[in-house]
Amino acid sequence: MDDRSARGIAGAVSRLVSAGSLPGGTRLPTVRELAAILGTSPTTVSQAWRTLARAGVIVPRGRAGTFVLEGAAPTVGGARRYRRVTRSPGRIGRDYSTGTPDPALLPDLAPVLARIARGNLTTSYLDDPVLPGLESALRARWPFSPEAITVVDGAMDALDRVTGALVGYGSRVMVENPCFPPLLDLLELVGAEVVALPSDAAGVRPDAVREALATHPVALYLQPRAQNPTGVSMTEHRARELAELLAGTGVTVIEDDHAGDVALAAPVSLGRHLPASCVHIRSFSKSHGPDLRLAAVGGVAATVEAVATRRLLGPGWSSRLLQAVLAELLEDPATERTLADARARYCARRERMLDALDARGVRAVGADGINLWIDVADEQVALVALAARGIGAAPGTPFEAAPLDGDHLRVTVGLVADELIEATADALADAAQV
């Protein structure tokens, strides 16, 4: 055991439980016995035991001792990073912190809703969770042939449920750095140990993955295109490189294709090379509308079916009415024209803003999607300076899975109106260089 802190001890024990080395019912050493074995203080071990008990990994039974329970159900943590991203200082007139699509560039749902509302799509609580027509449309668009597919209530719902099926307290998982803050909050909530991976213009670096595999992670989380916040899209060559490294390791790849049809890059997935080790999540919020609250989950049957089965004890299924709307949108030529226009306009806004910032001496990246990742001299000073001009941006710190070099802001450039790009670039440059 390399880390003999309370958190390190708790993580090590939980990993042994998850691996089956400490099955349910196993009596654990006393606090003093384990402290003597590890050469640490009884107080440290007591803290670790309390953490594991709160997480639902172990249970104290008085004089009988402390015993292992099956599974881990952590109840600690919170959405602290997510709250920081969505809380801007001052009074904001133009809020570019949200990471949400431009409502003016979304498909018009009204005609489709009117057509769909005439029918009754739910005849029984026991109907299949996914409409057959939608499943066919999804499979035709999937980047690989999934063993199973289901539909849930958005990408974060998908990440939550897949994580619950695969990741236990103390499990090590690999993530991109920088990374989507709600995912980091979720992993903290379940007690996972995050291994941060740097990226380049082609995606997560293979050398970083190779090194991280020595820590025996159980999962790799990726956003394969228009990564939030950097806009990086993984290349097919990089996907093959990563697949070669991961083959036979037991690592499950969890892909969050959050940008969907507003991304310029074509869908790329490690599932093409590792179909038995990949779960791919496809969101339709940024492309077809956040209020649809739909994302598809496809890949390894055991994981997808575990998600669908667990939902039977909660919401049961995602609205089949909204599923029917999405199915029709996916086959609608007018919707495809709307999406093509949205892709082009988001691209134009990104490129204009990148050029404007470069001309003002500000470094920013954003090759795809709706966000820019901007270097600033001081994150907090930049946020306050922008707020003083009625502009909101997201701080960079919540995106850090591990400390980065320098300070950053994420700006949702997809929300910047064309006529405001130059003025916004002036404000961003002034704030970045303060």
TrEMBL record:
Domain spans labelled HTH gntR-type: 3-71
Keyword annotations: DNA-binding, Pyridoxal phosphate, Transcription, Transcription regulation
GO MF, any single term: DNA binding
Top-level taxon of the source organism: Bacteria
One of the Pfam families matching this protein, by short name: GntR
InterPro entries: Aminotransferase_I/II_large (IPR004839), HTH_trans_reg/aminotransferase (IPR051446), PyrdxlP-dep_Trfase (IPR015424), PyrdxlP-dep_Trfase_major (IPR015421), Tscrpt_reg_HTH_GntR (IPR000524), WH-like_DNA-bd_sf (IPR036388), WH_DNA-bd_sf (IPR036390)
Gene3D superfamilies: Type I PLP-dependent aspartate aminotransferase-like (Major domain), Winged helix-like DNA-binding domain superfamily/Winged helix DNA-binding domain
Signal peptide start and end residues: none
Keyword Transcription included in the entry's annotation: yes
Family under the similarity heading: In the C-terminal section; belongs to the class-I pyridoxal-phosphate-dependent aminotransferase family.
PANTHER family for this protein: HTH-TYPE TRANSCRIPTIONAL REGULATORY PROTEIN GABR
Protein name: Transcriptional regulator (GntR-family)
Organism name: Frankia alni (strain DSM 45986 / CECT 9034 / ACN14a)
Lineage: Bacteria, Bacillati, Actinomycetota, Actinomycetes, Frankiales
